[in-house]
Amino acid sequence: MLGYTGLGTSDEARYGDFKAYSGNEILGRHETVDFFVDLWTTLDHPRRRDIQPTKLKAHLDRLVIMDVLKKDGELALHVRLIGTFVASYYGEISDKDVNEMNNEPAAQRIYEASRLLLERKQPILTVTPALSKEKHHLEAIAFYMPLYDEDKNIVKILVYVDVVTLKDQLHNKGLGIPFKWRIF
User: Fold this and answer.
1) Distances from the Cα of 18 to the Cαs of 97, 109, 142, in angstroms?
2) Which of 92, 124, 145, 183 has CB atoms 3.0–4.6 Å from 158's, for a disulfide?
3) 143 phi/psi in degrees, rounded to 5
4) What topology is assigned to 10-173 in CATH?
5) pTM to 2 decimals?
6) How far apart are CA 147 and CA 46, in angstroms?
7) Tell me: the pLDDT tens digits for 49-66?
8) CA-CA distance, 176 to 50, in Å (whole number)?
9) Exposed (0-12), middle (13-18) or buried (19+): which is 49, by Cβ within 10 Å?
């Protein structure tokens, strides 16, 4: 079943290894990620209550909020909220652990990126190349932002997720040239 992304679901794509970026490496890679970098950096150790959904209306369908928990001494990521765009691609996993996703490699990528965030105590951007079953070249972009409690412990992770085709990326970067006509 295709999600409304028109790109299918994550189970219908083959993914490569993701790259993780932090600090200044993040800027300029994705317009909406730059928006979230600006938002996150204007807040001092942002908490969940600092994130105002009314200011993020245009992005709510692409947001995920996960609780950071420990189960038997191991990291556990409990999905508190998943936007409709993300759910259409990765499946509805609200109120479940990320490991309950149907796509085990995606769950592993999410855990690995979250471990990096917890280790570095700063936002992490992951970019994962993929090929859809229709042979569309895709990139799954996920921007992980730590959210803190009163004692400045990371207790939640806010994630902005986007899945775009290479053609869309070229068009969005102002090239406006269909991919098949672009000369590399």
Assistant:
1) 21, 8, 10
2) 145
3) -110, 110
4) Beta-Lactamase (3.30.450)
5) 0.82
6) 5
7) 998 888 899 999 999 999
8) 37
9) exposed
Could you give the CA distance from residue 157 to residue 121 in angstroms, rounded to a whole number?
11
Task: Domain ranges for the chain, please list them.
Answer: 10-173
**Contact (Cβ atoms closer than 8 angstroms) between residue 18 and residue 109:** yes
Q: With 60 as the cut, is the pLDDT of residue 171 above it?
A: no
Spatial separation of the C-alpha atoms in residues 120 and 101, rounded to whole Å: 26
- Residue 73: CB atoms within 10 A of its CB come to 5
Query: What pairing do the DSSP bridges indicate for beta strands 13-15 and 124-132?
Result: antiparallel
Q: Within 10 Å of residue 112's Cβ, how many Cβ atoms? A: 14
Alpha carbon distance 88, 176 (integer Å): 27
Identify the three-state secondary structure at position 61.
Answer: helix
Q: Which of 64, 81, 76, 80 is nearest to 158 (CA)?
A: 64
